[in-house]
Model the fold of this input.
Amino acid sequence: MTSLSRRRLLASAAVPLAGLAGLSHSQPREMTIVVAYPPGGSLDAMARVLAQRLSVIRDQAVIVDNRAGFSGNIGAQYVAKAAPDGNTVLMTALTTYAITASLMGRAAGYDLLKDFEHVAIVGSLPNLLIVPASLPVNSLQEFIQAAKAKPGAFSYATTGNGSLEHIAGEMLKRAAKIDMLAVPYKGSTPGITDLIGGQIQAMFVNTSTAINNLKSGRIKVLAVAGPSRVTALPKVPTMRESGVVLGNDVVSLFGIAAPHGTPGPIVDKLNADLNTALRDPEVRSRFEALGIDVVTESAAEATRRITREIGTWVKVIKETGISLQ
Done:
């Protein structure tokens, strides 16, 4: 075979190989939404709804990866160290992370503002005060009077020192001038189990948790610890309507964050895709079924809101004197 023929043969063989290489390069990479908590909670449910819709919008496989542990910090640390290419993002429990930032600082293993690009706020979830159905009270004021009649006899469940439930309970104690004992549990489920059994007299839980347990008839919802009533429970008044003003509304914010250094165009494109997903009627319906109010905002506004959130909880924690000790 001549040298010229050999070059032609090699060139013709290279054509399909080059085509395959080009095709491989053009295929979108898999996108991962990390949830730093176990499957089954509100955050996980939201992530899965968004992943399903984003996979269609972006023509890209989108999976949910649960990396639980260390109060949500394991997953946050993982994403903070991931490649800043938009393919690994964190489904953020922003209020919880803001509280963690206030209580732990760098001991959490990441900086909520410096180590992430906050892509979007996707939803907000008010917290509610629940009591066992067996407790003979039907309003927040009746609960307060019952607690005052038996100083120190009432207790409330938390998911640990410094948790949102703990802070909410301490704010209620200060605002209503009542004495209650905080009892920490490893998660909301065992706390609710003891509340239903009557061992615990109160607990702050998010709307979706309250709705799921309300169906059983074993709990009562006394008040919304947010700025307004929730659509799913229109007859339940707010704390303010019930005559109690907490130091701050107890509303959980949720969002999406990418590793620091993720290029602006990637952040903006993901923000636009998320907002498109959130405007989808089916997505909105599934969020509302969880008691979650859909939020569609720019990436810049997401950063501003989390900055305010951190400042708010620094102030509340200082006022209540809560620590991790």
Observations:
- The chain has two domains: 29-125+251-320, 126-224.
- The beta strands are 31-35, 62-66, 88-93, 116-132, 154-158, 180-184, 202-206, 219-224, 251-259, 293-294.
